[in-house]
Design goal:
globular, Rossmann fold, 303 residues, alpha/beta
Length: 303
Amino acid sequence: MSWKKVVAITGCDSGLGWAIAARTAREGMITIAGMYNDTNTEASQALKSVCAHTHKLDVTDPHSIAEFKNYVNNILKDNPDCKLHAVVNNAGVMTVGDFEWLTPKIIENTINVNLLGSMRVVSAFLPELRKSASSGIKPRIINVASHCGLQPLPGFAPYSASKAGILAWTRALRLEQCVNGLTAVSFIPGGFITASNIMSTQLAHAKSMMDNLSEEQKALYENKIQSLSSYLCSAANNTRYDTMKDENIIETFMKALTEDNPKEIYKVESLRYKFYYKLMKIPLPMNLHRTLIKRFLKFPINS
């Protein structure tokens, strides 16, 4: 029997999540897109126009995840020729800034969304994925990681920690679930800040950072925080939900989604990334290492 593939994706309001939801829907897969900003947005309507299903989803809220899972399960129940093929954990947040600047709320939310949110979603869907595997499907969990999880960078400490956690957890899942015919994959898409709304909260977080600093810390860091946040927000200014157009990223993701025997990690890496990340692995003196990272990041401050 030929099964119709069902794909559930988190974080589809913009950027990578929106692009892959649109692509899988156009490919004829039954696509359920989790929308943090609800289902009455322009992004949601655009996904509906290509026959994707959209549903409200906050990966930090167990009740929201349960409702999302029930929505997916109802589609499966109403369509006996459909099987859950993949759960894609794409939802993520990022605030750039030295660890000392960050408030406890920013730090905890980064881990809560990026790592714990992904874990909550997988916990909810594992039984249905195993059920698909028993029907001859080759289902998979695809967790969106980051180069920062492989090579932590200054200014990205909690984000790097969350993505390193994703990589380690995904490998453990892969080893655990292989006996059930289910696999887990890490997808590292490379940088696309200007094609996503991931920086949309940076200015608001900059204000909360400064409000949280002592007078001594403000004297040291206030200008740096303002300069960095203005730069980052201007770089991602006027980003639409459908700005992600990088075919290499999307096609690499589709390989992770459709290959019969998916690899453990799918990675998109420009020549610039390859060059700098290879250099970063060399055990250089700390000052040289910092200089190299500054050249790579191109931030307008000297931390």
